[in-house]
Amino acid sequence: MKRLFSLAFLLVFALPSSFADDYSATIEQFRESPRTHSFFDTAYGYAVFPTVGKGGIGLGGAYGKGKVYQDGSPTGEASLAQVSFGLQLGGQAFSQIVFLQDKRAYDAFTSGSFEFGAQASAVALTLGASAQAGSTGTGAQAADTQSKANYVSGYAVFTMAKGGLMYEAAISGQKFGFKPY
């Protein structure tokens, strides 16, 4: 398992400089999507991970560093770690944002050790299309007919691919750490 995190960690730091951890640019990319406008307008806070590296061969792992924001200002540093098992092969890099609907969700996320189970899903933002994936199945739709993204238990997760190729039919969960400023 330690090797998987090392692989994901290496993927994050071996990426070209165009994938640098630029928080402002990442937030602006997510703001450009019509699917996230209402979340930026109403969320109590959000966590941004500019680059998450993910890799696997049967057993996989992912790692990324980020920041948590409240009222547009950073309140601390966050880390994301993921272990997955199932049919998977490859490596990829992506950006992720987790919207925190209210104070309860914010407090839980920033408690120092927060975890999404394998049943959690994320909405993948791409140009002209969207996909939603979770351990219960996957789906994709054209931009004009996408299902509406919603908070689930106070959280809404969006991802945006940056590069790489990964085939995956795996079960995974994400664990987050938080260190306040």
How many strand units?
Answer: 7
- Write down the overall mean pLDDT: 80
Question: Could you tell me the radius of gyration in angstroms?
Answer: 15 Å
Share in β-strands: over 45%
**What is the 3D shape?**
globular
Helix proportion range: 10-25%
What class would the helix/strand composition place it in? alpha+beta
In whole angstroms, how far apart are the ends?
30 Å
Keywords for this entry:
181 residues; alpha+beta; seven-stranded mixed beta sheet; globular
Describe this structure in words.
- It is globular and about 40 Å long.
- The chain has four helices and seven strands; from the N terminus they run H-H-H-E-E-H-E-E-E-E-E.
- With 181 residues, it is of the alpha+beta class.
- The chain has one domain (2-176).
In short:
The protein is α+β, with helices and mostly antiparallel strands and 181 residues long. Helix content is 19%, strand content 55%.
